[in-house]
Amino acid sequence: MSAIEGAQPTAPIPVPNTVALRPEARTNRADAREEAFCELEAGVLRVLETYANVHRGTGYNSLVTTRLYERAREVILDALDLSRSRFTVVFCTPQRASSLEASLKPGTSLTLSSREIGLPLGIVALAVEKSKFPRGVPFQTGGGTTKIVSRHSVVWEDAPDRFEAGTPAIVNAIALALAVQIIRRRGAGVFKLRDGSALPAVRILDRNGFDGWSGRKLLSRLRSSVIGRGRDVPTANGSEPFVCLDNSASTPALWPVWQAVSQAWRQTEDEQRMLIARVKGICSRFFGAPLTGYDLIFTSNTTEAINLAAKSLESEPAARFEPVVLNTLMEHNSNELPWRLAKGVSLARTPVDGYGFPDMNEMERLLRTYNLDRTHGEKRIRIVAVSGASNVLGTAPDLRGISRLSHSYGARVLVDAAQLAGHRKIDMEADDIDYLAFSGHKMYAPFGTGGLFARKGLLRAGSEEMAMVRESGEENAAGIAALGKAIDLLERVGMDVVREEEQKLTRKALRELAAVPGIEVYGLKDPNSPLFERKGGVISFGLKRVPHNLVAEKLAGEGGIGVRNGCFCAHLLVKRLLGIPPVRETLADLGLRLAPRLTKSLLPGLVRVSFGIENDERDIDRLIISLKKIAAEQVSLMDKLFARTHNATPVVPDTDVRKRMRASAERDIENVFGTPQGNDRSVPEGTPVFAAKALSPGLIFLGRPCCHKH
After folding, report:
1. Domain 291-473 coded CATH 3.40.640.10
2. CATH classification (class only), 3-196+675-705
3. CA angle, 318 then 324 then 330, to 5°
């Protein structure tokens, strides 16, 4: 055991009573504070111009955002004076940080929280020695925590990703790192407010610059308000406007939503509480979930919300029956793993057809055999947990029919609405839905907030634990303001209008994709089918001669188009669509354990395009032109073989356009964080974390050792 493992911090790091500020800050603190906020706003706005989801996308924006996010970890380590080679940072909600701290040995971590610096971001940066992370199943599971999922096994991601379940609060994490840089230059306290915003909560949510607009006219205005839309990126043909076709992963921010965030930063805690109460009312109306009958818990994302529901099921009073959760084969990992790994809970699955619709006959058979015929002993299906829309095939099941069927056999219904909430109208009360989980970052509010609706009385976690979960989610008042503003705008457009516009684009895309040589589109592809009403703006496909990762790379390089490739955190469904046999699954699991880098570069998958309100027909034209060019290019024999077996290719050529994309990305990152500084501090092995730290005077109050007082 090293000294760091046995270190027992006995007192917090000394905090000076006064902190030396820059002379101009001391002269006029109000001006210095406003300058600090303006500097932070300018940096975050640059982040939003190239915002995308992290790690798994292939377009230019995903490249920039992933590097910004990883750079944010380095900025935090630099601020804490910790070696980048020895430590890493996990970005968490306060509640998640507390749970992770509790699993670590004392003295092995430091935290830096947005609340401590006066910003309502609801985020904690937890710096941990890389070798000290707990092994095994993470305490929250779902998207981003795994390398691959099979029916009976899971290969977990490495830290820190394994502890950042679901899409992390990317923008908030980067904002925290930017705020730390500003504090180090300007001194402590620059973001702490004595007087709040001049705008009350009602005006922050109601003012948007689009007063009097609604329907398609408002939609047209909002399309032009998407931050970063039309921004030029490097391509093989020179600079061209970026096309985001990865909206299923995460949606860009709307300008009025960003305005609400920057205004909420300047509110006092009392003002923020009023704002949160107002957003609860907005969410209640939008989702058809009256607060007299439903509880709403704000979370960081859909994944955290479903983990909360699973934890609640674990905590239900002991009964003679063993609870079972019924899933479908199309579920995202975030609506499968929390149930699979819940203590004392079994998981059953019902198949889906080739379009992604659940087999209702099989669902009824399972409900009947478990809950009526009792052929499974003391096991009873307590919850039917289904996706409101597939993130692979775009199909939306009949939620009202599923609820009616489930309730007739005494089971409750949970809907994973991550892919539904920003695209179609939802009415929980009318559809008799018991739980519903959703994310703001898929609703044009990518600021780290989601939520869980549950019928009153269903959330069974202990009162102290539930209070902590509520407080943790509501710390992100700015993210909640963003969610409320985005929902208000979507309501005024009308969800029927949003659905019709996306279906119009989907029809055009399907018709024109059919003319691309060697393409295979999965799921519903006939725009004239009566089932098309239940098809959303998500299309997954493959080219028979080109591996999926090479297609995605070429779309980025040739057309400036951002898409996603792989299994989209829905491994069970994608492998079933591709006909991957069990022996290949077993070999992939083994390979990811023995040779993870090589195996990861070979995994099977598809290419996915997904539409949002910023897309128009010109974007589809760009997609089709690029795909036809890719399909006509010469491909090596090796790549043809990989494509035929639906595998990725391990060799993606480092073309001139890829080099230009990387160079441009580095410039964009420097525009946000400045020129990177090296940090390879030689902290002797065994030195306690809390003793190794030497913060600048303006930041010393931020660091604290993990003392496990929860």
Report:
1. yes
2. alpha beta
3. 150
